[in-house]
């Protein structure tokens, strides 16, 4: 129903022989395209239950995405969608709350979090995939993201509260959360907006979505299998490439 809490949990470490390969993955995954490149690199992130996306922020702005006021100018944003209570600091703390969320329409939020590191550094405990996407798909993706949020009188998305971690916010969504409209279906729709082809009925679970994402025409490539990161592999935040 949501991405897990703070991904910057204490790392578990990886075997020494894997560190060289891991550093190479980080360098590749942190690639930021120039405005002249015909493609941009995007990422898919998953834990056991939930999926989210990572996009180059400047590309979203160039494509027409309307952010909340004062959001800043990060290199990347991670975005996901889910039930409002599940994304709160209190969580689902009422009797039969999970059943209510799953089987009755409930309020939802779209979380938007800014960062300047490579996705593998920000979420070392998650599985991560990447995909080259035609830059020309940006306007369709921006229209989808704009359409997910409730706008205020100035046409900006309505902020509900700060993000569950990091530098970001949760935006009021115009859609209700319930089966079959769950978090992974939102990710499936986002992939569809960048030219992918995901059957949402087979994408209700994270694994169901990922199985489709790895196949043509989606062609997401797994670059990190999760499990944490050794402190020796952590890099300084990137402010430019």
As a percent range, the share of helical residues equals 10-25%
Overall geometric form:
globular
Uncertain stretches: 1-30, 229-241
| Biggest sheet character | 8 strands, antiparallel
Alpha carbon gap, first and last residue: 34 Å
Question: Structural class of the helix and strand makeup?
Answer: alpha+beta
Estimate the mean pLDDT confidence: 81
Number of strands: 8
In percent, how much strand structure appears in the residues? Answer: 15-25%
> H/E order of the elements?
HEEHEHEHEHEEHHE
Give the strand order, joined by hyphens, for the main sheet. 6-7-4-3-2-1-5-8
Q: What would you report as the Rg, rounded to the nearest angstrom?
A: 17 Å
Specify the number of helices: 7
Report on the architecture of this protein.
This protein is α+β, with helices and mostly antiparallel strands and 241 residues long. The chain is built from 7 helices and 8 strands. The protein has helices spanning 19-29, 57-62, 97-103, 119-122, 138-148, 183-193, 206-213, and strands at residues 39-46, 51-56, 76-83, 108-115, 127-134, 159-162, 167-172, 221-225. An 8-stranded antiparallel beta sheet has the order 6-7-4-3-2-1-5-8. A hairpin with a 4-residue loop joins strand 6 (159-162) and strand 7. It is globular, with a radius of gyration of 17 Å.
